[in-house]
Amino acid sequence: VPHRREAVLLMELKPTEEEHAAVSDFPYQELVGSIAFPSCHTKLEIRFAVSMVSRHLHDWNATCISAALDLLSYCVETHDIGILWTPLIDPHGPNKPYGYGDSGYSAPRSQGGRLIKMNSAVISLSSQRHSTVDTSTTAAELKEAFLLSNDICGIRNLMEELGLPLDGPTVIYEDNMPAIQVINGERNLADTTRHLEINMWKLRERCDMQLTELVFCRTYDQLADNLTKANPTDLFKYLRDSMNGYAAAMLNDPDREMPVECITMSELSSMLKSLAEQDAMKAAKKAEQAAKKRKK
After folding, report:
1. What is the gyration radius of the CA atoms in the chain, in angstroms?
2. Banded model confidence at residue 190, pLDDT cuts 50, 70, 90
3. DSSP for 198-267?
4. I want to staple 245 with a disulfide (CB 3.0 to 4.6 A). Which of 2, 84, 166, 195 is the partner?
5. Separation CA 261–CA 28 (nearest Å)
6. d(C-alpha 110, C-alpha 104), whole Å
7. Which candidate, 292, 234, 223, 273, places its Cα nearest to that of 281?
8. Which residues, in sequence order, are bridge partners of residue 111?
9. Which are the contacts of 279, defined by CB distance < 8 A and separation ≥ 6?
10. Residue 110 in 3-state DSSP?
11. Which among 219, 189, 191 has a CA at the least distance from the CA of 279?
12. DSSP run (H or E) holding 291
């Protein structure tokens, strides 16, 4: 993975002047700048890690240096993993964009992540902190969904100029049901959502105009999850290769040769089986709770 889970400490790290002075001669800014370049082109999965190490460009300490070197090591070891587009196997159809938006609610500002996929692989991605403070998880999710809708409208306009107009709304996958209900008008505004900014209602307008559509997805199918937190290795690899197109290509052609560090077919099958078992357990638990309510 691009960083150890301990690297999340960078989010709350406050280096002292003594700690910075001890390692001030290390070319930390140059190292982070060199790593940031591929994160904008072919190594999009490291964008969250780059966001973390970039928070201390002026007051780094030994912990920051260790996290940056871990990230550099990941880039070297997975240098042959990039982005793989395969247009004819995408269930959404060829040249049909769709997005994933997620936000990790935290103080003082939430970490948001969003991406757009087309032809089985990512074409646009962002992972950065929100510019203002969020007061609830729903507010944080709605803000990221709005930012994603901006990106989607830009893609739709570009495709129309290229002579590839899109029929119907572009799907935005969201794992927060209250956020979807607020936008669809299916939920009364509570104290935590009544104050939402005007731009949130712009998202509702875009849904009404059939430019975008919010669709619920399971948390472990939320590909933007890697852009808001440091996930365990197996989940990170599953989400990474689902995002960059390798998982879809592997399922379509199991005999196709893949990069060495890419998720293997056995790992992918094991992950999908594990997720299916989790779904079955949740469904059984809900059925049990519903049965108890009926008895009462």
Report:
1. 21
2. low
3. HHHHHHHHHHHTTSEEEEE--GGG-GGGGGTS---HHHHHHHHHHHSSHHHHHHH-TTS---TTSPPHHH
4. 84
5. 27
6. 6
7. 273
8. 104, 129
9. 218
10. coil
11. 219
12. helix 265-295
CB atoms within 10 A of CB 170: 24
129 membership: H or E segment, kind and range: strand 121-129
Spatial distance between the Cα atoms of 155 and 110, rounded to a whole number of angstroms = 25
8 A C-beta contact, residue 249 and residue 256: yes
Do 57 and 26 contact (CB within 8 A), yes or no? no
Joined tokens for residue 250: 């592997």
pLDDT on residue 21:
94
pLDDT at 225 over 60: yes
- Identify the burial level of 92 via C-beta atoms within 10 angstroms of its C-beta, where 0-12 means exposed, 13-18 middle and 19 or more buried: middle
Evaluate if residue 188 carries a pLDDT over 60: no
Cα–Cα distance for residue pair 173/143, rounded to 1 Å: 14
Answer whether residue 197 shows pLDDT above 70: no
Whether 192 has a pLDDT exceeding 70, the answer reads no
Whether this prediction's pTM lies above 0.90 is answered by no
Which amino acid is located at 274 in the chain? S
Cis peptide before 108 (omega within 30 of 0): yes
Q: What pLDDT score does 84 carry?
A: 94
Q: Which amino acid is at 279?
A: D
Quote the DSSP letter at residue 26. S
Q: What average pLDDT does the segment 25-46 reach?
A: 93
- Give the mean model confidence (pLDDT) for residues 5-24: 82
Q: Which residues pair with 173 in a beta bridge?
A: 100, 215
Phi, then psi, of 234 in degrees rounded to 5: -65, -40
Residue that is written with structure tokens 């936000």 in the block: 103
Closest to 70 in 3D by CA, of 35, 98, 101:
35
